[in-house]
Amino acid sequence: MNAPAAEDCSLDLSMLVELKNNLDENFPLTENQRHLLGEVLGRLIFGERNLLAVFGVKVSPGQRSAATRNAIDQRNRLICEVAAKFYPSLSFNEQSQRISEAWSRYTASAWHREKSCIECPSRHAGKIYGALWKIMKSPETSHVLSAERLRKVLVASSPYS
User: Fold this and answer.
1) Are 97 and 156 in contact (CB under 8 A)?
2) Residue 140: predicted pLDDT
3) pLDDT grade, residue 7 (50/70/90)?
4) At what angle do helices 147-157 and 92-108 cross, to 10 degrees?
5) Measured between alpha carbons, how far is residue 72 from residues 35, 135, 138, 139 in Å?
6) In angstroms, rounded to a whole number, what is the distance separating the alpha carbons of residues 103 and 106?
7) In the chain, what is the straight-line distance between the N-terminal and C-terminal CA atoms, in Å?
8) What is the pLDDT of residues 82-120, one digit of tens each?
9) Closest alpha carbon to 73 in 134, 140, 133, 137
10) What is the pTM of this model?
11) What contacts 140, CB < 8 A, 6 or more positions away?
12) Ramachandran category for residue 24: left, alpha or beta (phi over 0 → left; psi -120 to 50 → alpha)
């Protein structure tokens, strides 16, 4: 099997997974895998700091990066935790309305003072504002989600959907 050309910037994800598995199992590397490992290490050594670029991963136009998808998933998990903890007996629609109202109140008041805090203010510990502070500090949350968007998040995360 021939090694990919040195100028080929994109690395096949399946090749990376196979390389990782071989390294984990102490299997000998193929010539192609040695070249791939050298390519990745070379990009790291010679100053590339963006890991997606190191591995040649390109996000297609109109698609979200893996980091963005992970941040949104984390935010959605936190939203579901808020609904389950503070409004467990309500419907998705009622949960989303209550969360949206509390979130709007929080961002209109205390959030302006607390957004620069590194840790959640102790006065919010165990309260809905503490959970909303954590959501607002997540990378993909810069604004209050609408009640309709919150409802869609809750429904999509339901084990019944």
Assistant:
1) no
2) 73
3) very low
4) 130
5) 35, 10, 8, 8
6) 5
7) 46
8) 999 999 999 999 999 999 999 999 999 988 899 888 899
9) 140
10) 0.63
11) 68, 71, 72, 75
12) alpha
Instruction: Write the Ramachandran bin of 62: left for phi over 0, alpha for psi from -120 to 50, otherwise beta.
Output: left
Give me 76's structure tokens.
């959605």
Q: Which amino acid belongs to residue 3?
A: A
Residue written as token pair 């629609």: 93
Is residue 120 within 8 A of residue 133, CB to CB? The reply is yes
The token pair that represents 59 in the structure block = 């996000």
| Residue in the structure block whose two tokens are 């192609």 | 32
Which residues, at least 6 apart from 82, have a Cβ–Cβ distance to it below 8 Å?
A: 99, 128, 131, 132, 135
Q: Contact, 64 vs 71, CB < 8 A?
A: no
Kindly tell me the burial class for residue 99, based on how many C-beta atoms sit within 10 Å of its own C-beta (0-12, 13-18, 19 or more): buried
CA distance 38 to 33: 8
